[in-house]
Structure formats: C-alpha cells, structure tokens
Design brief:
With 319 residues, the chain is of the alpha/beta class. Helix content is 45%, strand content 15%. The protein has an eight-stranded mixed sheet, sandwiched between helices. Helix 4 links the parallel strand 5 and strand 6. It is globular, with a radius of gyration of 22 Å.
C-alpha cells in the first residue's frame, strides 16, 4: 500500500513538472514573439500627440490648416492610423487633418477591458469636443463606420459631413455574444494560453493573408505595411483585449435606427471590385435615402490605399 501511494504521488508530481515546464515554455515563446514583433519600431513617428482620455491615452497626428477632418481607421487588433499614410499629406494641403490610433490600436493605450461600440462612439465625440473644438468632417473605414454613426446620432452638432469607406453590411451589427463567444473570450483572457492563441491569430502570415483578400491590386499591399500592422498587433499592455471583443461580437451594434435619424451629409465610398458594394449601397440608402455614394475603380475594401488618386479626386467634390 505504501509503495502504491508513493508511485501515485510520483505520477502526480511528474504531471505537475511537465505541465509547469510546458507553461514556462509557452510563456517564453510569447515573450520572444512580442519582442520580435516590435523590434523594428516602425510606428513611432515625429509629431505624434497625446489625448489624455478617461479610458486611456490616445495617440494622434495633426497636419495642415483649414477646415478639420478626422480620419478613423478600421477597427482591428492590427490596425492603426498607418491606414491613412497615402492620403494624409495631400488632404492636409487644404484641411487640418487629425489621424488617431483608436483605443486598443497602434500606439494608443490598450487597457484590459471589454471594448464596445459605445466606448468608441464616446471617444469620437470627446475627441472632437476637446481636441478639435469645432464641427468636423469624419472619414471612417470599414467596421468603424458603425460607431461613427452612433457618435453622430448622440451629438450631430459635432459633425459636418460623414464619409464611410467600405462600411460593413448592417446585418453584421445584429450579431451578439453567445455562450461560445463568452467561453472563448474567457479562454483568451488567460495569461499564457490566451496570449498564445492571440499570437497565432496575428501571425504576420495571417495578417497578410486577411488583408490580401481585400486588395484588388496586390502590389499596393507592401511588406512595410504588413510589418507595421504586425507591430501594431503586439504593442501595448493588452492588445488581445480588443481582439477578443471583436471576434466575440462585443463591438457590434445594430445602427439602422441611428442611420435613419441622421440629417448630416453622408457619403458612402466603395471599391468597384468589392462583390457586395452594390448591395451595401442599396442597404444604406434604403434606410437613409439622402446618402450619396461613390465607387472607386481598381479597389476592394481600401480604395484610399489602392487608388488614392481617384479616391481623393472624387472626395474633393464633397469636402
């Protein structure tokens, strides 16, 4: 009996040692990945400013003089204001241009929290009120369009015009966190396993693959751009917090009612090579018939990157 007890104890001890060793190994792997991802330090540029906000400091750039324009990049764990690099200088010749890194993105703070549409709509309103201080034209990209619409519905006096580039289909806003999503979010919140799952999701090869799907002109998706997105996905305290909120649908919101209430001028921009662009335009204009639309050739989701010349030419008509 005593021999069996010792044998059982040794088995438990061995399992504990193996488990501990595995977790230590995974922790080291996570740290090595993070160090490597930020080693090039590509995101730090001269002239960045800080907006001290209640949920975390927001990094932004300000360029030019004239009527104000706020650029809001698409909402993704790897995204940042780098998205606007091709057009910010040209826009700044006639306008005061503000390009922010959203909370949880780029060089802005990335607190451990659940990110929601309401948080980002508050950020937009507060940034315009406190930093810009006057009515502003807001240009948003992709899924960020939903909280820009919510922000305008909350206080339309802050907005001049709204430009939505490749907004998501409105039905996606109806997806809400289910039991599986909540369980997955709980797993992602674990320090070692969660970090490993996140690091796999934002591997450079995965970022490149996902972005390439939305580019018609593949040559416009440069290695430098991918490197910057990869670095953005690893900077800050908890970059995985935004990722978990996104994939588990905590950032979603049905904005159909808000969209129908807005009287501000709204311009919807789509890439001609986006298979769903006609349906998206019909969907938005059926709710708010005053919405105007532009289609840009040789582009899918990022006309402001793939065909920036035609994009700016078309946009100047409205600005």
């Amino acid at each position: 009996m005593r021999y069996n007890s010792v044998k059982k104890y040794l088995k438990i001890l061995s399992a504990m040692v193996i488990t501990s060793s595995t977790l230590i190994g995974l922790s080291i792997i996570n740290k090595v990945i993070n160090i490597h991802a930020v080693s090039k330090n590509l995101l730090h540029t001269k002239g960045t400013k800080k907006f001290v906000w209640k949920f975390g400091d927001i990094t932004y750039r300000k360029k030019g003089t004239g009527t104000p324009i706020l650029l809001v990049h698409s909402l993704d764990a790897a995204a940042s204001s780098v998205e606007w690099s091709k057009i910010i200088n040209r826009l700044s010749k006639r306008h005061t241009v503000y390009a922010m890194d959203l909370l949880g993105c780029g060089l802005s703070e990335k607190p451990i929290m659940t990110y929601t549409n309401h948080i980002f709509s508050q950020l937009i309103n507060d940034f315009i009120k406190i930093v810009i201080g006057k009515r502003t034209t807001v240009i948003s990209s992709g899924n960020s369009s939903s909280f820009v619409i919510s922000a305008c519905d909350n206080d339309n006096s802050l907005f001049e015009k709204i430009v939505l580039i490749s907004p998501e289909e409105l039905q996606k806003g109806s997806l809400i966190p289910g039991k599986r999503a909540k369980s997955y979010k709980a797993i992602l919140s674990m320090s070692i396993i969660g970090n490993l799952l996140y690091n796999i999701a934002v591997l450079k090869i995965n970022i490149k693959h996902n972005m390439a799907l939305n580019f018609y002109r593949k040559g416009k998706l440069t290695d430098e751009m991918i490197d910057k997105y990869y670095e953005s996905s690893h900077r800050g305290l908890s970059p995985k917090s935004l990722y978990s909120s996104l994939v588990c649908h905590y950032t979603n919101k049905n904005i159909k009612f808000e969209l129908s209430q807005i009287d501000n001028s709204i311009i919807l921009v789509e890439g001609c090579n986006n298979k769903n662009f006609v349906n998206v335009i019909k969907e938005y204009t059926s709710i708010n018939p005053a919405i105007e639309s532009i289609s840009i050739e040789n582009s899918i989701k990022y006309p402001h990157i793939e065909n920036e010349g035609e994009f700016l030419k078309a946009l100047n008509i409205y600005l």
